[in-house]
Amino acid sequence: MPFRVLIVDDSPSMRTFIKRVIELSGLEIGAHWEAGDGVEALDILDREWVDVILTDINMPRMNGEEFVRHLSGCGLLSTVPVIVISTDATTARREHLRKLGAQGYLAKPFRPEALREEIERVTGVASAN
Amino acid sequence: MESVLETMFFAMADGEADPMDPLPPDSYRMGMSFDGACEGRFEVRIAKEAAHRIAESFSGVADPDDLTEGGVLEVVGELTNMICGSMLSQWAEDKIFSLSTPSRIAAPNVPDRPAALSVASRAFVLDGGVLAAEMELTGCRP
């Protein structure tokens, strides 16, 4: 199934890298959008529907934590899963984001297969297969 | 560090180097700070050619000439951020840290600095030159 993906990270090179890694993992991207922070991401989500959101934590204007909190508050997390991709691999941070509503968490560094597995897990594609 | 280099930047270390050895004058140096359970600074110094090779791998550019110095520095910033985050996560898995955005430091080599609580440094030989990293702790909360 081609995925519609929203990649949220303040680093353009990291957004490009994540898209490449998704493709390297064998997942098909039907459409993708990129945002530099949570504010831009919300603007995109006002206009487009996506299958999964991949977000960094440290971003200007609206960081990943605030973004996830906002998505939870408006009910979007019940239909669109969020995977946090961050250099912070501490269990404290993972648990904190999980409690805010993020369905997935991937710590950098990660292999393409790990990103694929996490996307398939949170979207339910793995169980359907 | 090796895991970050290999997994995200497709760069293999070809042995270790002395982190105190000065790098060429045109090398890049990135610094960032962190706080939370502990506070401190983290720096990466990398030879220019090694930085370009890493940036090419990370960006996936077909033509290296398409990569600007700004693009290379952005990737070095990502490298700095990832190594710092990875080291902190391994060292204090049950703590939360806040990391600053990496920024370029003009002087490529390490100046004399006041003593910190603890300093850890490593350096690797990469394709194109040396990468050196140093983490400095200046305080920890009980």
Written account of the structure:
The complex is a heterodimer of chains A (129) and B (142). Chain A is an alpha/beta fold and 129 residues long. Chain A contains six helices and five strands; from the N terminus they run E-H-E-H-E-H-E-H-E-H-H. Chain A has helices at residues 12-24, 38-45, 64-73, 91-100, 112-123, 125-128; strands spanning 3-8, 29-35, 52-55, 82-86, 104-107. The N and C termini of chain A lie close together (11 Å). The mean pLDDT of chain A is 92. By secondary structure, chain B is α+β, with helices and mostly antiparallel strands. In chain B, 30% of the residues lie in helices and 31% in strands. Chain B contains three helices and six strands, in the order H-E-E-H-H-E-E-E-E. In chain B, strands 1, 2, 3, 4, 5 and 6 form a six-stranded antiparallel β-sheet that branches. In chain B, strand 1 (28-36) and strand 2 (38-46) form a beta hairpin. Chain B is globular, with a radius of gyration of 15 Å. Chains A and B meet through helix 1 and helix 4 of A and helix 1, helix 2 and helix 3 of B.
In short:
The complex is a heterodimer of chains A (129) and B (142). Chain A is an alpha/beta fold and 129 residues long. Chain A has helices at residues 12-24, 38-45, 64-73, 91-100, 112-123, 125-128; strands spanning 3-8, 29-35, 52-55, 82-86, 104-107.
List the main descriptive attributes of the protein structure presented here.
heterodimer; A: 129 residues; alpha/beta; B: 142 residues; alpha+beta; 3 helices; globular
The oligomeric status of these chains comes to heterodimer
Along the chain, the helix and strand elements of chain A come as EHEHEHEHEHH
| Main sheet attributes: strand count, strand direction, barrel closure of chain A | 5 strands, parallel
Largest interface: A-B, 22 and 30 residues
Largest sheet of chain B: 6 strands, antiparallel
Q: Give the % helix of chain A.
A: 40-55%
- What best-fitting shape of chain B do the alpha-carbon axes yield? globular
Count of runs of 4 or more consecutive helical residues of chain B? 3
Please report which band the strand proportion of chain A falls in: under 5%, 5-15%, 15-25%, 25-35%, 35-45% or over 45%.
15-25%
| Terminus-to-terminus distance of chain B | 27 Å
* Apparent shape of chain A: globular
Rg from alpha-carbon coordinates of chain A: 13 Å
